[in-house]
Amino acid sequence: MATYIVLSNFTYQGIRTVKDTTKRAAAVREMAKKCGIEMKDIYWTLGSHDLVVTFDAPDDATFTAFGLSLGAAGNVRGCVKTQNHFSGECVRLRSNLKMELHEARR
């Protein structure tokens, strides 16, 4: 499973009905589950984005289809702003592997 970090903003429709945002978040969690995706965390934020949400999904195609369905509901935009990222453990393992490969070539 890959982890996707999504930066989203409310649309005009979404901000008009912001009082329902926690209900919509619960509905998104259920919608994701039906697609084989897990919504890990959601944060309502101040600044350039209204929401930061993390998901675990099996692949890009599944997550893209989910994101398009979510965007079609009309409450948020920017679902395509996913970020590739790496955990500290992943970076450490990749760095060690690159070092080992470099040393093996000598």
Keywords:
106 residues; alpha+beta; Alpha-Beta Plaits; 4 helices; globular
Structure characterization notes:
The structure is a single chain. With 106 residues, the protein is an alpha+beta fold. It has one domain (2-105): 2-Layer Sandwich (Alpha-Beta Plaits). It is built from four helices and five strands; from the N terminus they run E-H-H-E-E-H-E-E-H. It has helices at 12-16, 21-34, 60-72, 88-105, and strands at 2-10, 38-44, 51-57, 76-77, 82-83. Strands 1, 2, 3, 4 and 5 form a five-stranded antiparallel β-sheet that branches. The model has no long low-confidence stretch (mean pLDDT 85).
* Biggest sheet statistics: 5 strands, antiparallel
Let me know the average pLDDT. Answer: 85
Number of strands: 5
Helix content: 40-55%
Assess the beta-strand content as a share of residues.
25-35%
Low-confidence stretches: none
Structural class: alpha+beta
Instruction: Kindly report the CATH topology.
Output: Alpha-Beta Plaits
Q: Could you tell me how far the N terminus lies from the C terminus, measured between alpha carbons in angstroms?
A: 35 Å
CATH structural architecture: 2-Layer Sandwich
Helix count equals 4
**Roughly how many Å is the radius of gyration?**
17 Å
Please provide the ordered H/E string of secondary-structure elements: EHHEEHEEH
Shape: globular
Quickly name the level 1 CATH class: Alpha Beta
How many domains? The number is 1
